[in-house]
Amino acid sequence: MKILALDIGAGTEDVLLYDTTKENIENCIKIVLPSPTQIFAAKIREITQLRQDVLIKGDIIGGGAFTSSLKKHIRAGYRVVMLETAAYTVRNNLDDVRALGIEIIQDNHLMSFSGETLILEEVNLTKLKEFLTNFNENFSDIDVVAIAIQDHGVYTKGTSNRRVRIQKMKELLEINSRPEVLAFMANEVPSCFLRMKSAVEASKRQLPKTKVLLMDTALAAIMGCLQDPVIAEKELILAVNVGNGHTMAAIIFQGKIMGLLEHHTQALNPQKIEQLLIDFMNGKLSDDEVFKDGGHGLFFLEDTPYFSKIEQIAVTGPNRNILAQTNLPIHFASPAGDVMMTGPIGLVEVTKKKLGIHTN
């Protein structure tokens, strides 16, 4: 069995070609690339230096650095024109996109345009296929493409986009509290997650016969933490992914999520995150408190077990060292000995669970 796992974050795109014919996972192909948002942000900076307007087409990608470059391009006095689909990259409400000074047009209303044209692509299967063909890899026998991205979800005017994604997670976990319920096969992606749907379409365009699975990046990392040999033998853990943009923490008992918290990493320092996690584990933190502090929020599915009962705090993510500066008893998760593969390994594990596949 072969699973191509792509963990597409704000800084890097981490790739694992999981192949059960290999003797062990260390023999599988692993690649760490700049994330698409970083690549396209650099292209916008180049266009700004050329003093050109820009027309943007293509798929929905992660905003992040790319959106920041667009704002700077507009402030420099140049036009940004986006086709409607691509415009959802910036925000999931097009009125908010227009408010930034971005012009939005329909496919059938293309005008004569004097400037640079940029075509956005987030799921780069064709490029990976071309590259790996040189190393005798055949993409025709890939069973599943598993992709982790972050999707805030569609929000209505007057509501916060910080609310949508965590509310959807709560809604699904109340039915089944195992993390794999938050992974979606192509036909299961909720309608509010436009970026995920775009990733499905891009995957099917490039590998039409291959199954596709989507999951949130932070949750894929948490699933990966559970595959660390030190963590795998524990029943009650706190798993924390300290990402470039978001920090997510999950209290997990016997493979089920008891509570979930999400904040913005830039709002946290060692002292604050330590107290935040202790209060979370002790059930002394509320959803409104986290939201009012600029985070997404939190929810509990069961009574919290209290900090003193947590067997292990598993930590991953590019900003994980922030927790090394606390007094918390942490363990840096590194499934298969590679912290950069935490997300992809989480994707592989959840794919097996979703499809009912048992491999050694």
How many strands in all?
16
Structural class: alpha/beta
Query: Level of helix content?
Result: 25-40%
Instruction: Give me the side-by-side strand order of the main sheet.
Output: 3-2-1-8-10-9
Query: What is the residue-mean pLDDT, rounded to a whole number?
Result: 93
| Rg value | 20 Å
Give the distance, in angstroms, between the N- and C-terminal Cα atoms.
11 Å
Second CATH tier, the architecture of the domain at 229-333: 2-Layer Sandwich
- Helix/strand order: EEEHEHEHHEEHEHEHEHHEEEHHEEEH
CATH topology of the domain at 229-333: Nucleotidyltransferase, domain 5
List keywords for this structure.
360 residues; alpha/beta; Rossmann fold; Nucleotidyltransferase, domain 5; six-stranded mixed sheet; 12 helices; 32% helix; globular
Structural description of this entry:
Helix 1 (36-49) packs parallel to helix 2 (64-75) and helix 8 (217-225) packs across helix 12 (342-355). The protein is globular, with a radius of gyration of 20 Å. Among the domains are: 37-120, 3-Layer(aba) Sandwich (Rossmann fold); 229-333, ATPase, nucleotide binding domain (Nucleotidyltransferase, domain 5). The protein is of the alpha/beta class. Helix content is 32%, strand content 25%. The chain has twelve helices and 16 strands. The N and C termini lie close together (11 Å). The chain has helices at residues 36-49, 64-75, 84-87, 94-99, 125-133, 161-173, 194-206, 217-225, 229-232, 270-281, 287-292, 342-355, and strands at 2-8, 12-19, 29-34, 54-58, 80-83, 103-105, 116-120, 144-149, 183-185, 211-216, 236-242, 246-253, 256-264, 297-300, 312-316, 330-332. The strands form three sheets. A six-stranded mixed β-sheet has the order 3-2-1-8-10-9, sandwiched between helices. The protein has a six-stranded mixed β-sheet with strand order 14-13-12-11-15-16, sandwiched between helices.
